[in-house]
Amino acid sequence: AVLVIGSANADLVVPVDHRPAGGETVLGGDTVLSPGGKGANTAVAAGRLGASVALLGAVGPDAYGTLLRDSLTGAGVSLDHLRTVDRPTGIAYITVTPDGENSILVSPGANSALSPSDITDAALSGASVVVLSLEVPLATVSHAVSRAAASGATVLLNLSPAALLPTETLSAVDVLLVNEHEAAYLLGSTSADLTGLLALGPRAAVVTLGARGAVVITPEGPTSVASPTVRALDTTGAGDAFAGALAASLASGLSLTEAAHRAAAVAAVSVTRAGAQPSYPTAAEVF
Ligand code: ADP
């Protein structure tokens, strides 16, 4: 089974001509509300592919918490380890300009309440793959990585949004998953040599390259993984689709390179449809 540890947010997306500057009021288009957050997205992507998956996270006792629970349940994700805490559900306030560029303000709310003590034996037991991302407190992520590694699970860390973690944490990671920007952040912008990611500690790394697919980096060297060519409509949540599909494929026993091929195919479908969670395909739609 797959255990995802991470955020759950309501995405509030507003189209605008331009973003408001300080002191300015701008009238935008209609708000589109959808379930999001890197953890919930990853869990929904894995669940829709048929994996047995649970989300360990936190939402608030409000309508957005219900929206997230419904979306997760609809994808077959177990809510056994999703706590309801006395903070508002996390919200991402997203403005999109006509050129397609997003500006995102995240109010983590309930996600901030996820603490090391939430990483229980009950949640870890039975998880062969544990996936983590960084919209929750870094101390919780570090603790969870070390507990998951000690339990014998394969630890997949999607280091997004990019942040610095202790060497001890990165050394306990089996697969470090980042996009090009996050890789550049970790390596220092001058380095183009992605194999340098292994020097940070993980056993292997996967760097996603948008339409160019991804590269799998192991001590034996890099392997390119192509993405199917598609007409991209909305790339929101593509990286999370990749993470969820990679985890589901690893849990089903595929090698890292085989899993990355499947993840690229799933993520490519997701960019042809609007939204994050609503865009994720079932296995039957991809393979
Ligand atoms: P992020 O969403 O984290 O920025 P990427 O942009 O690298 O990550 O996209 C993640 C994955 O989504 C890619 O590895 C690829 O498989 C798929 N993808 C993203 N954009 C496209 C695209 N324009 N065409 C085909 N596949 C895409």
From TrEMBL:
Q: What is reported on the regulation of this protein's activity?
A: Activated by a monovalent cation that binds near, but not in, the active site. The most likely occupant of the site in vivo is potassium. Ion binding induces a conformational change that may alter substrate affinity.
Q: Which family does it belong to?
A: Belongs to the carbohydrate kinase PfkB family. Ribokinase subfamily.
Q: Which named protein is this?
A: Ribokinase
Recall the GO molecular function terms of this protein's record. Answer: ribokinase activity
Keyword Magnesium (UniProt) = yes
Taxonomically, what lineage is the organism?
Bacteria, Bacillati, Actinomycetota, Actinomycetes, Pseudonocardiales
Pathway field of the UniProt record reads: Carbohydrate metabolism; D-ribose degradation; D-ribose 5-phosphate from beta-D-ribopyranose: step 2/2
Database matches in HAMAP family: Ribokinase
Cofactor(s) required for function per UniProt: Mg(2+)
- PANTHER family the UniProt entry points to: RIBOKINASE, SUGAR KINASE
Its top-level enzyme class, in one word, is transferase
Q: What is the protein's species of origin?
A: Amycolatopsis rhabdoformis
Instruction: List the catalysed reactions.
Output: D-ribose + ATP = D-ribose 5-phosphate + ADP + H(+)
UniProt-annotated location(s): Cytoplasm
Under the heading InterPro entries, the entry gives: Carboh/pur_kinase_PfkB_CS, PfkB_dom, Ribo/fructo_kinase, Ribokinase, Ribokinase-like
Residues annotated for substrate binding in this entry: N9, A10, D11, G37, K38, G39, A40, N41, E135, D240
The chain positions of domain Carbohydrate kinase PfkB read: 2-282
Q: Name one Pfam family in it.
A: PfkB
Q: Chief location of this protein?
A: cytoplasm
| Assembly, per entry | Homodimer.
Keyword tags: ATP-binding, Carbohydrate metabolism, Cytoplasm, Kinase, Magnesium, Metal-binding, Nucleotide-binding, Potassium, Transferase
Q: Where does K(+) bind?
A: D234, T236, S270, R273, G275, S279
Q: What does this protein do?
A: Catalyzes the phosphorylation of ribose at O-5 in a reaction requiring ATP and magnesium. The resulting D-ribose-5-phosphate can then be used either for sythesis of nucleotides, histidine, and tryptophan, or as a component of the pentose phosphate pathway.
Task: State where ATP binds.
Answer: N179, T208, L209, G210, A211, R212, G213, G239, D240
Q: What is its EC number?
A: 2.7.1.15
